[in-house]
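Q: What changes when NAP is included in the input?
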Amino acid sequence: MAATSPFTLKWGIMATGWIAEMFTKDLLTNPAARDVHDVGHEVVAAASSSAKQRAADFLSMVKAPTSAKAYGSYHELVADPDIDIIYVATPHSHHFQNAMLALDAGKNVLCEKSLTVTAAQTRKLIETARVKKVFFMEAVWTRYFPLSIKVRELVQSGAIGNVYRTIADLSFNRDTADGKVDFDDSHRMVNIDLAGGALLDLGIYSLTWVFQTLYHVQPEKDKESPKVVAAMNKYHTGADETTSIIVQFPEHKSMGIALTSLRVSTDVDGHNTGGPAIRIQGSGGEIHVMGPAYRPLQFKVIKKDGGGKVEVVDCPIPKDEERDWGHGMFWEADECARCLRDGKVESETLPWSESMVIMETMDEALRQGGITYPELIMSDVFDAQSPLNTGKR
Ligand SMILES: NC(=O)c1ccc[n+]([C@@H]2O[C@H](COP(=O)([O-])OP(=O)(O)OC[C@H]3O[C@@H](n4cnc5c(N)ncnc54)[C@H](OP(=O)(O)O)[C@@H]3O)[C@@H](O)[C@H]2O)c1
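A: The predicted holo structure follows.
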């Protein structure tokens, strides 16, 4: 019997920044290098909001095939009939308007984290995807790592008993001697106009570990929205610089602690000697995930009655030797391809309802922390001609 050819997903890349480069290079790797044979990817086009030449330079930098088209506007990208799915890789301030632009044009969308600035914006995107009957997913790549899948399976199998608590941290020490952090005030990490702050950029990964080990694993009929208690220290730009969130599931007697900071580091010396980034604590033992929380490569299983034995599991990211590349974002791209091949509009690994609950948690944390963003980026009214869509800065 002849082998069936893999389903190929045709991508349009919206924006030409750092993560767009990482993701597009991963799309261009050979799936066989990660032992994937049922799906593949094609980069059809990339668009820059500033200039067509910037998109052309991006495509040549990532060594895209010469057939890939360069566009000088996001509007042109979403109108391209050859594209199946748009990857939104703009700052999170722009996600709502940019993802709406693509959904409104009938395109499937994979949108970077944090999905939006507010939960109301996420709700609007989900409603639009539902009405348009198109696929929509938040690009939390870590969820699709074989490591995350194994950890979720261990939690669900009861390998460490009932899981009652997860402590997760993603922090980077960017402290400078003058009391600031080493990002220019205009940088998207601290710029309030670009929805800057530790929570929306880094804390989302701490929350991802809390939610995938305490909420995702709850049976569907017993899904419990959390109670949220948060504290935030503010940077002088108005963005949060250190944030701690307690996420409580009283019915399940479980609790998550999500930490993030721009002042101290999870990995104190750059050699992972500071201990695990994530501790998943059960009645019968613990799972320790070694950081960084967004791209973990190892976890440890420690049983309460294990007599001091530690099981160490390494999960390296496979590299395409020909391209000398492999970042780990291809697994989420493979998930998009499989969902679209199978006619699904959302992924079971990160369903719309779960993105919604996480955004509500961040909304509540920002409210308690007293952080507000400008109206332009908090609005949930779609405007195709918004400066966030046209690039007029
Ligand atoms: N999954 C991950 O591991 C990961 C890692 C880093 C970042 N991210 C997420 O990806 C998004 C982008 O982050 P990044 O590090 O790639 O940022 P970046 O390097 O600053 O790139 C952002 C791109 O967005 C476009 N853009 C449109 N309007 C802009 C504006 N007013 N200011 C700045 N850029 C604008 C620009 O491309 P054009 O001019 O070509 O349109 C720019 O190159 C963020 O939401 C971030 O949270 C995810």
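Observations recorded in class: The radius of gyration is 21 Å.
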